[in-house]
């Protein structure tokens, strides 16, 4: 027992002596006075209070710098050197009212032996299903004849959108120029593609989004096929303009149906299902202006999503989509809400995931969704029974543009003049300012701030940190070995 106490006292004395050795030799100001035998107890106590206060305020200021780095390091400034800019024109998405191709539908009916009145009933059902969305699900016809036809052809809800796609002719591949859906700025062709939206199959022009935003990729996981009719002509991926171009416009043309539904939106995002025009029988001419939100070249490398509170297109955190935009994120919110409330999702969403969600049959679309349409579209209800899910938060796009609609006019006479209807975008005035996300407090600034704070309060430096590591790693090992030996 005596030997154990003696050994314990020896260890304690060694530890105390080691700390005394460190205090006497360290470069941090004030510590040596705690072990100076020439000072009175009162003086040592005074130095202890000063050291504790300095360490406390050093930690507080350093934590404030760290908090600033993670929460307030990004600044959105205004740039005004507009003569050097190229501004991306807004995008336009056009949804034709008549979706199905009569030739494809006739061949489909012949393969399944559908004739006479049944053929008309099925045509009306498919057209309404292809044009259905949150505001008109109740318009899908329902009767015993439709149930019997669906049973006979073995059509399941998860195959709704594939069948609609197969019965729809993508007229961007039409050989006849006058019949082709095309996007043009004078003699210049702008890239146009068929996309799958919350309003079904539509056509998109002047977008900077990748080809992953297309109907073929959403349904089959394949990029659109090569379009020789578009690539053989002079082609632009998207249209831009500058301050010296007083009037720039383009038109998405070639729609032969009785009417279209058009959406004007940012070229960095997709259309919003509740921001559409009315049924336009003559087409739509948009008079718009756009103010871009840009980002520094090093913004992505120097910051995280949480720090900048925005996402680039490839920084997706979604389940059903392989790219990110704010409106796409909101679509995923609707998917999750629909699955939570109606226990299934509408047919027009991509569902190629590891655990696909059940797709709603047309009866569920008619019965469940109209009762909650406002909640699905707005993602909240005032004085309603639903609450917005805590997980339904969508960051802004790091690159985006704010679209201002000055006027929306019908394209009177377009059908007679152009042989069809469409939508045109015109930009007559260009912004003289734009917003830019900038890093104003980088990692280097954080290190300088912490180093300056430590130096101010404690006289601490990088060499002081090396000294601490040395004393309590390498030297302490040698001390223990010497003690053991």
Mean pLDDT metric? 88
Shape, per Cα inertia axes: elongated
Strand content: 15-25%
Q: Compute the gyration radius: what is it?
A: 33 Å
Query: Total strand count, please?
Result: 17
Give the helices and strands, then pairings.
Elements: H1 2-25, H2 41-71, E1 74-79, E2 87-88, E3 91-96, H3 102-112, H4 116-130, H5 144-153, H6 160-166, E4 182-185, E5 188-190, E6 192-197, E7 200-205, H7 215-220, H8 228-231, E8 235-236, E9 240-241, E10 248-255, E11 260-265, E12 284-295, H9 299-302, H10 305-308, E13 310-311, H11 326-342, H12 362-367, H13 373-378, E14 396-397, E15 400-410, H14 414-418, E16 421-427, E17 434-439, H15 443-458, H16 462-471, H17 474-484
Parallel strand pairs: 5-8, 12-16, 12-17, 13-14
Antiparallel strand pairs: 1-17, 2-9, 3-7, 3-11, 4-5, 4-10, 6-7, 10-16, 12-15
Helix pairs in contact: 2-15
Structure description:
With 485 residues, this protein is of the alpha+beta class. It is built from 17 helices and 17 strands. It has helices at residues 2-25, 41-71, 102-112, 116-130, 144-153, 160-166, 215-220, 228-231, 299-302, 305-308, 326-342, 362-367, 373-378, 414-418, 443-458, 462-471, 474-484, and strands spanning 74-79, 87-88, 91-96, 182-185, 188-190, 192-197, 200-205, 235-236, 240-241, 248-255, 260-265, 284-295, 310-311, 396-397, 400-410, 421-427, 434-439. The strands form 4 sheets. Strands 1, 4, 5, 8, 10, 12, 15, 16 and 17 form a 9-stranded mixed beta sheet that branches. A hairpin with a 2-residue loop joins β4 and β5 (188-190). α2 (41-71) packs antiparallel against α15 (443-458). The two termini are 22 Å apart.
